[in-house]
Amino acid sequence: MSTNEPARPAAADYEKALVRSDQRVAEFEEDAPTPLMRLQRMLHSQPTLIPGIVLLLGVLMFSVIVGERFLDPFNLSLIVQQVTIIGILGVAQTIVVLTAGIDLSVGAIMVLTSVVMGKLAVGGGVPAPLAVSAGLIVGMVCGWINGVLVTYVRLPPFIVTLGTWSVFFALNLWYSESETIRAQDIETEAPLLQFFGTAVDLGQARLTFGSIFMLLLCLLFGYMLNRTAWGRHVFAVGDDPDSARLAGIRTERTLLSVYSLAGLVCGLAGWALIGRIGSVSPQAGQTGNLDSITAVVIGGTSLFGGRGAILGTLIGALIVGVFRNGLALSGVNVLWQEFTVGILIIVAVAIDQWLRKATS
Amino acid sequence: MSVVPVLQARGLVKRWGRVTAMDHADFDLMPGEILAVIGDNGAGKSTLIKALTGAVLPDHGEIRLDGKVVNFASPQEARAAGIETVYQNLALSPALSIADNMFLGREIRRKGPLGDWLRMLDKAEMQRIARQKLSELGLMTIQNIGQLVETLSGGQRQGVAIARAAAFGSRVIIMDEPTAALGVKESRRVLDLINDVRRKGLPIVLISHNMPHVFEVADRIHIHRLGRRHCVVDPKAISMSDAVAIMTGAAEPPAAAAA
Questions:
Q1: A31 part of contact set with chain B, CB < 8 Å
Q2: Which of A154, B17, B80, B148 lies at 20 to 30 Å from A108 by C-alpha?
Q3: Contact A9 B215 (CB under 8 A)
Q4: Interface of B with A in 45-64 (CB under 8 A)
Q5: Can you tell me where the transmembrane regions are (chain A) (predicted)?
Q6: Per residue in B183-228, pLDDT tens?
Q7: What would the pLDDT profile of A213-233 be if each residue is shown by its tens digit?
Q8: Looking at the domain A51-59+68-359, which fold is it?
């Protein structure tokens, strides 16, 4: 019945008028876009463009206002050191936010892992490499727990990580017995833990291994997100999970891998945190949760998922660093730093909303 | 009939609690044909299609592909067996490019260590194939295969989804309401696309509410009613209003066609 085309009714009568209309139907071009639409579209396809411009403007602004002291290579490299921890946590936060989730527990995981590393290596008698590995595994397990609750128990990420934030932080206080491990003790017993604090001088600039590691980590995750199937799946799951599932992506596995990886990266942040502050303190890194979200949002990653980039988060973290540093050097009261960061967040989300409207 | 149906189902049953979505439903798709599936809302069309594509596991009954019994536990398995579905929501990711979307879930990796160890995608190759597949269906007025799907119109998106199914479907293509969301002109283009796909020799299952479209392209019409195949009719031998009457239970099917 198949080979010869059977006689069939011609196109329905009501469609006859179509002959007179434009016959080019499925052409992939549209009406001449207005300049505003074109701008919207360009910004939309280049999510890191705006953060990049803001960072540039910030640097320009403070080099005019503050001058030499701001542009001093040592000061600029200090900014990079100051954003190292937030940058690393931001990588974890970015991959979670790309799936339209959020991870409020990143800071707590970071502190917990640093405490595990410190307690095991100092006084625990565990060789430093093993202690570090144990810390990283703890981080990954924490992330995995988040992932299981989000993926298989189907709880909202906000609630899950709000809960695990408290749980992980309480575990951290319990395990550390609320005691700080002194920098000298770490230095003598397990110097590996402070590895990321090692600094290299490049002229006047001073970079720590932690800062370099943050940059490498951004490169790695940038590669994974853009050049591997896993990365494409992360975007697709965040964009529209139902479509992703129908298109053949194992969305549960993708989500679980994202949360587990985020936990592992938080573990790395815990290690870097020891390098940054020298000691291990159960009270350190309290602002990590919200600061990482700030960096992600200012970096142009959409809280609604599916849009964004690691590079944006790095820039977002640097923007915050530049504004804090610049305002501090300008001699402005510290409260105006908070004020400015708040404004930046709101503007960033407003721009994201505008861009999303452009293409829906 | 000596021809073996490409896709066949016998006695499919699916219950959700007290609701019986499929009540011993049968189904036959012949090689090279366009089979339309019509039925009133709630008749169980979707469940039937989901069972055929592995999205729903029937409680009873058997499905045969090329005469061999198959048990699809997931849409991936059905797809691996050569059954591609164009879903009503298209299952496209708006924030990804046309090429990314066509290869979503079956990306091609680079040859050699870059692909094996670093798992690097072969973007150039995927774009080449995507462009070729779109050209085959006459859709290659797209200037940029890297264009994001969200910048495309409804008909263009439908085109991408159909091209994806046609590119990877080796046995059967199932289309769920492909013209429902489209304007008159874009519908016409999609109907042409459906005929293009058929000319490649692939049988198509077309689920649609649009009677003119069904009667224009279908070789046979499967009328689904109350969870089962009510009858199969020949669109050349029956009027649209009769088909609608049978579908809604207002008329009995012609004696020869009763299933």
A1: no
A2: A154
A3: yes
A4: none
A5: 48-66, 78-97, 104-122, 128-150, 157-175, 207-225, 255-274, 294-323, 335-355
A6: 888 788 889 889 888 888 899 999 998 899 999 999 999 999 998 8
A7: 999 999 999 999 999 999 999
A8: ABC transporter involved in vitamin B12 uptake, BtuC (1.10.3470)
